[in-house]
Amino acid sequence: MSQVSAPVSTTVIASDIAGAAAFGAAVLERFEQVLAVVRGLGFVTQDPGRPNLTLTLSPDQEPGPALDAMARAAVAFDAAVSPLSLRSVVHFGVVFRTDSSAGVSYVGSAIRTTQSALRRVPAAGGFLATAEFAAFAAKFPQLPFRVRPVTSGAAIEGLNHLLFGDVVAEAVPASTATTGVADAAFVDFAKRRLAEEIGPFANALVDRAVRAATALDQLVSQLAGDIDNPAARKKFEDDLLRFAKSRR
Could you give the CA distance from residue 132 to residue 122 in angstroms, rounded to a whole number? Predict the structure, then answer.
């Protein structure tokens, strides 16, 4: 007998190996090393004997450390089994927690959505994230990755790249890395902060505003204009100006 809780929102990550239709014993053995890492991060389901997994974090668990650990495990895996690679999709959505004598598990639409998104991703490694996770991640001031929208490929429209470590600096487009108005750190902060208010369209709005603005105050005012709530708009302006001042 199991009991199902009320719905909660949390982070779900689905992964598999891209690049081949069949996998030898050596690849599966290496994948077990990834699983060993992931099992220590949250609730894991997997098809026995297949190189795939779905990790569901607890609702109060911040995603940064878990994704950082997974990214490190993926780098080691990719190096060992090249040209195969591990690919992952990260989503933020609704699950139900189930409690039984066998322990805790999770079911729900977020798991199905994440697995469905993974199936439509081209055969390439790396981490992708849904728009829902991008908006959720923007609420955290410090994360071990940056979010960059995928701008090409209809099959993955609406998904974002998660860029870890040194890749981040290389991945910032030259057009937004620095301008006469704002540097890359300010642009990144503005995107995260605006996404917290209006969702995943923030990245495109900030990039467009940065290209058009001739002064910082003008840039901040233009971005704040996309926020309907007056109190939230004022706090957004104050946060951006405070961040800019802290870098002088």
Answer: 20
